[in-house]
Specification:
heterodimer, A: mainly alpha, ABC transporter involved in vitamin B12 uptake, BtuC, globular, B: alpha/beta, Rossmann fold, five-stranded mixed sheet, 12 helices, 43% helix, elongated
Chain lengths: 342, 300
Amino acid sequence: MNAVALVQRRRRQQARVVIACLVSGSVLLLLLGIAIGSTGLENLWAAGDDAVSLQIIRDIRAPRAIGAWLAGALLGLAGAIAQGLFRNPLADPYLLGSASGASFGVGVALVLMGSTPYATDWLARLGLTTAAFVGAVAAVLLTLLLARGVQHTLRLLLAGVVVGVVLGALGSLVMMMQPEVMLSMQSFMLGSTGFIGWAACGLMAVAWCACAAPALALSRVLDGLSLGEATATSLGLPLPRMRAALVAALALATGAAVAQTGLIAFVGLAAPHLVRSLIRGTHRMFLFAASLMGGVLLLAADTLARWLIAPQELPVGVLTAVLGGGYLLWLMNQRGEPRRGT
Amino acid sequence: MLDNKVYPDERLALARFLPLLLVSVLLSWCPSVHALEIIDDRGVRVVLAQPPQRIVSVLPSLSETVCALGQCARLVGVDRYSNFPAQVRSLPKVGGGLDPNVEAIVALRPDLVLLAASSPAAARLESLGLKVVALEPKRHADAQRVMLQLGQLLGVPDAAKLWAVIEAEVDAAVRLVPAAARSKRIYFEVNSGPYAASTESFIGETLARLGVANIVPGEMGPFPRINPEFVVRADPDLIMVGDSNFAGMQQRPGWAHMQAIAQGRVCVFPPDVSDVMVRPGPRMGEAARAMAGCLGKHLR
């Protein structure tokens, strides 16, 4: 008994250290993100008396850095929820079809914008952001409909795959019928943190709060689920309702991130694994740390993306894959065999 | 500020004169104030207080149009694909039309940003207080309208004249087309998807002006992706294609037997000519001449 308590205490301490590191890493990267851009450090010194430099710092770099962190945090959280919910280490935020849904939504919006002059007015106001969000959430709803609810994990997974493939195909069809939208859609699919303003930051911050609160509150369900569905039910957890709430949080987090930044690859998959390789413990800690890790990962990638070939930029999705994948491989080799999920 | 040495009565005269002067100056500005209002291709009304002096263009055809209007010096930044005229190559590059670097654009302090209507950056740049005009010429008529609109925005009166020059160039190209080439059937491939230029595209319009037929009908959209079999069945008299897309064309199943390929009636345009072909801008006359040259060479 004593030994168990000791192990638990050590794990808690470890987790606290990791979370402290992630928080300070985020702050450091935020500062770095504000310092680095196409025009270099001189903006920082000039910001006091030069309006454009001040604007670059205050209205471009700051929201971009914070927005990249928030998008990463949303994806990290969504990935951790997905992996816990489906007890599958390969689960990622796009599992329930939201990625294909979002790109299909964007494709349809682009086509309507391009072809019907009357739709342009209100569509332009709604923008691609809304189209992506609606597409992502609608895809998840469709998945839920096809899976007839959230009760069966396997059915949900398969329905998600089917919706993803079908909507992906429809998206490609849109692209093929209207080749003019192809480049726009491709840039959406690569993901970009380049156009994030304060409004987007606000939306993502609200979404993060709205998703993190229920997810952290329901983390017990994920703890229970990790012991198997039967055990979770036997613990007296109202599984269907809680699962539905978690799926909603997953869909909202993914939709919010995708709408503002496009389809950023790998953050949602890698962040939970990176955290899992560092700490073990309850899902409450795990979800929170995975979200922080996602933020750190995307912000680091974003900072590198604008620094490496400045004043031009690399697609941030390429860097998330390289950074996240590289770090994950390195961790795996450090520890020999990768550990099983918590 | 009035000079202190001015005598009181003179000062009085000046004080009376000043409002008059102001009114007349304002009146003389008024037409230009009205002239600097534009509804762009997004349907957004953009008002500029004065003709822009620092322009960032992130669409090659718009960069070319600004320069053709003689205002190249007002460009302070362009996208990575703008490469004509030579002056724009030395300008700062602010990324591509779809992935422009917002910060690099703002840092150039432009008073006007020109971009395509499909650019995702427009809203973001506007929210940062920049004047954004989205213009996306797709047809000949669009190219003319864009040229006139830009002339109006930049305060250049000769825009209509410039368009007349382009028209004259196209007409001259029409006269270069040999009679034997009239109503011959052409296939113009823009990309090895294969994507073709139909009669509904500005390229198709130029071909129509040159008096040749296009195997790709306009109902398929301006640049449709077509089934390679469609081309084989249509068996065009002549193929026009860019250098980078020509590779492997003969190896496409069934294509080697098409009369155009079997008899070598394929015009392969080098990259710089391809650029001219695919940009609906001030070099459309040049594009027409290149097409006419191709027709004259192969369909004599």
